[in-house]
């Protein structure tokens, strides 16, 4: 029994851990949490006793009674017997106190005669009638001036109801009985504003865009971000963010990141939706000024940094990249996300371009060029389970990886619809794929392969999907985004090169991409994360992206058949029906996933999920148009009449099925259009094409 350890460790927890309600490992001179967030570790051994001091409650009751008597005398609405009474004697009130405590004397407050006025009670009036600057009185009537220590001249601009008859009854229930007060709507509104103050001392309250922004609102926006947006923007370490989020003066880059997180959280909230534009403007101003200061100090004038790198052999690292905070890049990416859902893809492309250039300057594409996660310790936790500061480099490196890959994927998704050229090229990437979310948040260093290795395994015929190790949902999304970028490049090259030699290269690329996409889709289907498809928006979007790539490759093949000559196509036409069948199966799979997407809600969905939905809808419309154009006459001339009737019935059944699938996809696009401007753009395009097809059949 004596060998049983104690749950409570010896000693006192530091002030930082007590404030954050975190478990302190009591390491001296600096505990693990303080070392992680980089603050001084302060330990207070002697603490005062809790609770009010002796006489504070009695003093507060006496002061309330004094104020009520003064108000009643000023307003003159009491009966003559009550008016003839003298004010309550503070010494008499304290004579019944058996505690024997001494309290400061109470100084009466002279009030001017304004009995003829009648105005609602407001906050400045209450803040000017405090008799003295004591702890008890400041609890009820907080003041902002420190010079009114003895007397205060106040102007009472209100008509108080007759509830002051029991001035000698100084108990709190008697003094706070409001049930018989007659109040109009104006007085209720003023009292509501009076009582809605932040309980934290010195907390800032500001108005932004007509919205009252308090610490409670900012905390709610933080929670909204991690509840609704972190799954699709998984680049911020939650514990590390909250370690500095409530600091009064964080670094300028962290201030920009916090403001950007609040901006996108407001965009995904019905309560704070109107606050988003004001936060967006404020964040843009912060980022513009901070980027100007950061980049202006990263020029060639810093000769000390040049001197420190001239002695080192090999390529010299970018001086500007060493000084660019990762929070600035994350902030621009979050604003680009906001532009996608609120402004459109053109403005999002401009904003994302700022992030892409900073990614290149910071050299986030070669985070693992020389050293990677294999140099990190395998056991991330200490003996008592608390994380020490040895894992800070891993957290920072993993945040850099996730920030780069989010920008990499964002580049592919933004350029998909309009076939824009890509900014972040795949050939220069020397950054490992991100680890799982659990490893990232729990500070558990994990080694993951490079993107080139994952794609090489996908394109190799000797490597089967059953033997490949599944990646995390975010890493799978990155691999599929890279494959989709290759599909876009493949289509552009097929439109430019139509010679005989280039035709063979086209078919080789097409077969490799088809094999890679199908393997990744099979890995997703066998992955345990597929069970979370109706709860995790990243898993849902990743699986949709795989199906969309299959449809995209089928469309590229159809365009190649139309452009190339018969001798260049050869016997490849025999495989056209199989590719189209794969695309049709992928489109049906997207419709099934769209039904599951409703359980997530429109606030949590990936912003680019509308792209696979619109792609599947366009495929059904084109397929129905081609079937309707061929008609029953497409049958051979020597076929019987019964086969023609069966062909006509099959055509009508196919068109009716396509109608139902398209309507399901359009319904989800309309649902997403309330929050996503990109969904509105896709909806207009698909509905116009759908209406044209319905009118012409």
From TrEMBL:
Cell compartment(s), UniProt: Nucleus
Keyword annotations from UniProtKB, A to Z: DNA-binding, Metal-binding, Nucleus, Transcription, Transcription regulation
BP-aspect Gene Ontology terms: DNA-templated transcription
Domain of life: Eukaryota
UniProt source species: Penicillium bovifimosum
Polar residues bias: start-end ranges: 75-86, 95-105
Protein name: Zn(2)-C6 fungal-type domain-containing protein
Pfam families according to UniProt: Fungal_trans, Zn_clus
Stretches that traverse the bilayer: none
């Amino acid at each position: 029994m004596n060998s049983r350890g104690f749950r409570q460790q010896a000693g006192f927890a530091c002030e930082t851990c007590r404030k954050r309600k975190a478990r302190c490992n009591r390491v001296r001179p600096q505990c693990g949490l303080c070392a992680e967030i980089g603050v001084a570790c302060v330990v207070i051994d002697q603490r005062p006793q809790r609770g009010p001091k002796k006489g504070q409650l009695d003093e507060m009751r006496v002061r309330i009674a004094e104020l009520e008597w003064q108000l009643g005398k000023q307003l003159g609405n009491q009966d003559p017997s009550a008016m003839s009474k003298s004010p309550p004697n503070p010494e008499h009130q304290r004579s019944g106190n058996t505690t024997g405590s001494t309290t400061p004397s109470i100084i009466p407050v002279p009030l001017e005669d304004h009995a003829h006025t009648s105005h609602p009670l407001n906050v400045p009036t209450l803040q000017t009638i405090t008799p003295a600057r004591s702890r008890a009185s400041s609890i009820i009537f907080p003041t902002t001036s420190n010079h009114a220590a003895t007397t205060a001249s106040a102007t009472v601009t209100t008509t108080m109801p007759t509830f002051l008859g029991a001035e000698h009854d100084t108990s709190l229930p008697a003094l706070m009985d409001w049930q018989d007060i007659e109040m109009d709507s104006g007085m209720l509104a003023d009292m509501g504003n009076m009582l809605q103050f932040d309980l934290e001392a010195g907390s800032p309250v500001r108005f932004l865009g007509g919205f009252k922004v308090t610490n409670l609102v900012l905390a709610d926006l933080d929670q909204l971000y991690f509840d609704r947006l972190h799954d699709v923007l998984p680049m911020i370490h939650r514990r590390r963010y909250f370690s500095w989020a409530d600091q009064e003066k964080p670094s300028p880059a962290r201030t920009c990141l916090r403001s950007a997180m609040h901006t996108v959280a407001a965009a995904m909230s019905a309560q704070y939706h109107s606050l988003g534009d004001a936060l967006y403007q404020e964040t843009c101003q912060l980022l513009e000024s901070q980027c100007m200061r950061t980049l202006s100090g990263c020029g060639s004038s810093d000769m000390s940094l040049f001197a420190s790198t001239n002695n080192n052999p090999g390529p010299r690292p970018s001086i500007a990249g060493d000084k660019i905070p990762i929070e600035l890049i994350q902030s621009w990416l979050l604003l680009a996300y906001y532009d996608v859902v609120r402004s459109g893809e053109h403005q999002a492309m401009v904003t994302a371009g700022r992030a892409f250039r900073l990614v290149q300057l910071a050299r986030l594409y070669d985070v693992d060029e020389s050293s990677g996660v294999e140099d990190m310790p395998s056991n991330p936790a200490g003996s008592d389970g608390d994380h020490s500061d040895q894992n800070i480099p891993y957290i920072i490196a993993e945040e850099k990886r996730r920030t780069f890959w989010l920008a990499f994927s964002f580049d592919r998704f933004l350029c998909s619809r309009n076939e824009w050229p890509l900014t972040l090229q795949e050939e220069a990437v020397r950054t490992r794929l991100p680890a799982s979310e659990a490893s990232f948040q729990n500070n558990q260093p994990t080694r993951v392969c490079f993107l080139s290795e994952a794609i090489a395994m996908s394109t190799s015929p000797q490597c089967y999907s059953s033997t490949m190790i599944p990646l995390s949902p975010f890493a799978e999304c990155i691999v599929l985004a890279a494959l989709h970028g290759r599909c876009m490049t493949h289509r552009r090259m097929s439109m430019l090169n139509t010679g005989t030699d280039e035709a063979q290269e086209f078919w080789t690329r097409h077969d490799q991409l088809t094999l890679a996409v199908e393997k990744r889709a099979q890995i997703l289907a066998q992955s345990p994360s597929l069970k979370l498809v109706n709860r995790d928006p990243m898993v849902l979007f990743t699986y949709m992206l795989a199906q969309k790539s299959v449809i995209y490759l089928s469309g590229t093949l159809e365009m190649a058949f139309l452009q190339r000559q018969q001798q260049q196509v050869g016997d490849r036409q025999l495989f056209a029906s199989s590719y189209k069948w794969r695309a049709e199966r992928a489109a049906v799979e997207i419709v099934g996933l769209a039904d599951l997407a409703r359980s997530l809600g429109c606030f949590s969905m990936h912003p680019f999920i509308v792209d696979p939905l619109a792609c599947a809808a366009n495929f059904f419309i084109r397929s129905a148009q081609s079937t309707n154009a061929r008609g029953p006459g497409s049958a051979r001339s020597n076929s019987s009449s019964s086969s023609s009737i069966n062909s006509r019935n099959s055509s009508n059944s196919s068109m009716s099925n396509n109608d139902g699938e398209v309507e399901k996809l359009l319904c989800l696009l309309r649902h997403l259009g309330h929050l996503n401007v990109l969904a509105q753009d896709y909806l207009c395009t698909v509905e116009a094409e759908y209406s044209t097809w319905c009118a012409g059949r």
